[in-house]
Each structure stands twice: as C-alpha cells, then as structure tokens.
Write a structure and sequence with these properties.
Structural class: alpha/beta
Largest sheet: 6 strands, mixed
Number of strands: 14
Order of helices and strands: HEEHEEHEHEEEEEHEEEHE
Organism: Camellia lanceoleosa
Protein name: Protein trichome birefringence-like 34
Distance between the termini: 35 Å
Strand order of the largest sheet: 6-7-8-5-11-14
Helix content: 10-25%
Strand content: 15-25%
Number of domains: 1
C-alpha cells in the first residue's frame, strides 16, 4: 500500500460497482434530472467513467437540498448553519458532476440495502465527522423513528439502522496514531504530541468494519510535532521534535502497515482523504 493515497485514486473500481449495483437493485433505468438536461443513465458508460474526475456544479433543482439541518434529528448544533441564522443557503445546491457521465440521484433505501448487515466507519477529524453527520442526515427521513438510534461512547459515535442491521459510525482520531488530541471534546492543545508507532488502541474500534473512510491532514499543519518515546502514562516522558512532513509520513506508514496486516481486502473497502479545505469559520 502506498503511504500517501487519495480518495480519487483508491478503490474507484469498487465505487463504480456500487453504482452499477444500485441500478440493478432498482430494476429499472432511472433518469437523472437537473435544471438544464435530462439524461438516461447508460450502464456501460458508467462502468467506464472515472467518478473521481469532475467538478462541482450548481443545480437549480427544487428538490435540493436532500436534507435540511433543521429537520435532521441527529444534527449537531455546531454544524446547524440554518438553525443559527445563516441566510445564504445556496451552497446546499452544489452537486458533484463527473466528466463524461452522470451520478444517479441519492437514494437512501438503496444505500441501506447495500449496507444491510454491514458497518461503515469514518475515522479521522472533524472533516470526517461532517461527512458522517451528512450521511446520517441523508438516511434519517427514510428510517422510521423506532428503527434507528444514535449512541455516543467517547470517541466512537454510532448510528444504527436496526431494520437493516446497518451501522454507520464515526471514530475521532485526528492524527490516526495515538496523540494527546484524542479526546473528542477536549483536544485544542497548542503542544501537540504523538505516539508515532501506536495505533492499536484506535484500530480495535474499527477493525471489523466493512467500509473504512479515513482522513487526516489538517491536524498536522504545524512546523514540528513532538514524538513521544514510550507511553502517555509514563512518569518520565521523552520527546523528540520532528518536522511535520516527516512525522506525517511516519504516521501514515504505521497506519498503512496496520491495514496491510490486519484488514481482509476481500471483505473491507478502504478509502483515504488527504488534503482538505480548512473550515474553522
């Protein structure tokens, strides 16, 4: 496994197969409609399409957005823009448009069928937490209230669709390896410290997943980090300051080595999102 991979380059074939299965499960060819064109989805074209090469386009379709933060019972207040007074909601109408093909419109029940009896886990920082919240809110309205629940257990957030025995989880691990920033509610520390070869504590929380989506980059954007020799519990802690890029590379090496050793690639799909936009404001 390469140390640095991106979502665009990793497992695109499996993603195409998921979309093809989506159409097969619907037992029909769906029209993809936007404000200026109507296309019939061509399965052969979709199978050849690079889903990760495209651009964001503004869609005037009145059925957007696919959910509203005021209506999603699982939305966190720090993400609820409309609830707290944001007036410009046009950002909710942007959608991904691959070059050379159209994505089918999101179908919550089709996704739940794909996840029946499975566990999807987002692992990383608040960028992936945002992705997890969006996924949960996209599914929320399609699941009757008695058949879903959310459970928070420290760094592990679990959403369960009981009828499908499907679990969609988020695990807070902003640096992937162990660090002094692993507390999901108390992690804004100026003196960042990592155990660069220690990942087992986190990995045991997501090792059984069927789909793993990792992200990690923003938390590394400081000139140097302290690498801890030994454990955080040790009374005599020894540190070594390492420049950010070298430290990031070592952490991803620990991460990728763990996946190579412990993950059954015939069962589990892996994705990694690297550089992402800041979103502190």
């Amino acid at each position: 496994m390469k140390v640095l991979v991106t979502l665009a380059a990793y497992h695109s074939k499996d993603s195409k197969e998921i979309l093809l299965d989506y159409h097969q499960n619907q037992n029909q060819t769906r029209d993809y409609k936007s404000h200026d064109h109507v296309n019939v989805v061509d399965h052969s074209l979709l199978s050849r399409c690079d889903l990760f090469s495209g651009k964001w386009v503004y869609d005037h379709n009145k059925s957007y957005p696919l959910y509203k933060d005021r209506e999603c019972k699982f939305m966190f207040d720090d993400l609820a823009c409309e609830k707290f007074g944001r007036k410009d909601l046009n950002y909710q109408h942007w959608r991904w448009q691959p070059h050379g093909c159209d994505l089918p419109r999101f179908n919550a029940k089709a996704l739940l069928e794909r996840l029946r009896g499975k566990r999807l886990v987002f692992v990383g920082d608040s960028v992936n937490r945002n992705q997890w919240v969006s996924m949960v809110c996209l599914l929320d309205s399609s699941i009757p209230k008695p058949l879903k629940y959310m459970h928070l257990n420290g760094p592990l957030y679990t959403f369960k669709a009981t009828e499908y025995n499907a679990s969609i989880d988020f695990y807070w691990s902003p640096l992937l390896v162990e660090s002094n920033s692993d507390n999901p509610s108390n992690h804004h520390l100026s003196d960042r410290i990592v155990r660069i070869k220690a990942i087992e504590k986190h990995a045991r929380q997501w090792g059984d997943a069927d789909v793993l989506v990792f992200n990690s980059y923003l938390w590394w954007r400081i000139p140097k980090l302290k690498v801890l020799q030994g454990s955080f519990e040790s009374p005599n802690q020894v540190y070594q300051e390492v420049n950010m890029l070298q430290c990031y590379k070592m952490a991803l090496k620990t991460w990728s080595n763990w996946l190579d050793t412990h993950v059954n690639r015939t069962k589990t799909q892996l994705f990694f999102v690297s550089m992402t936009a800041t979103h502190s404001r």
